[in-house]
Design a protein that fits this description.
The chain has 172 residues and is mainly alpha-helical. The chain is built from 6 helices and 4 strands. Helix 2 runs antiparallel to helix 3.
Length: 172
């Protein structure tokens, strides 16, 4: 499997349709969409996905959604950023000697995406539900794949000591 923005898009559309039917949709529901998307991650493995989702849902469930808050966009951006950090913490390093040995060098840490996703303009204008879901899912996906993971890094042992050979790959 690999990260697929269509998973987030479909979930956001389902949530919008549920809201139109009168169902209360919360920030926690947004995290559920992110969780379904991130469970497909290949690099790094999805070790931290469920625990990151659980923590974020607990935090975000305390924030009211009625009436809609003017700080909704920063909340969503922060949630995506913290979610990525949770994924990174699930597999902070990959390689021999790490807590969960893997195929990486054991030298390059897993690096979450920097900053926050660029979603302000998407959520600041009225738009068709499907268009917003597509734009938002692509922005989140573009952000997430900037993370780095040491999937295939290795160390070459020269006479003076080990030299890391870069092997990080984007999150996929």
């Amino acid at each position: 499997m690999a990260l697929n923005p269509k998973v987030v898009e479909d979930e956001l559309i389902k949530q919008s349709e549920a809201a139109n039917r009168g169902q209360n949709i919360t920030y926690s529901d947004f995290v559920t969409a992110m969780e379904k998307y991130a469970l497909n991650i290949q690099y790094p493995p999805p070790n931290g996905v469920s625990s990151a989702a659980k923590i974020l849902k607990s935090l975000l469930d305390t924030i009211p959604t009625e009436p809609p808050l003017p700080i909704a966009v920063p909340i969503i951006k922060m949630a995506v950023q913290l979610f990525a950090l949770g994924i990174m913490l699930g597999k902070p390093i990959n390689g021999p000697g790490s807590a969960a040995p893997g195929t990486g060098s054991g030298i390059f840490p897993t690096v979450p995406p920097a900053g926050q996703p660029a979603i302000d303009s998407i959520l600041s204008q009225p738009n068709d539900v499907k268009a917003v879901a597509k734009q938002l899912s692509l922005a989140i996906h573009t952000y997430m794949i900037t993370g780095q993971y040491d999937a295939f890094g290795f160390v070459i042992p020269p006479p003076t000591g080990p030299t890391p050979t870069p092997g990080p790959v984007p999150w996929t």
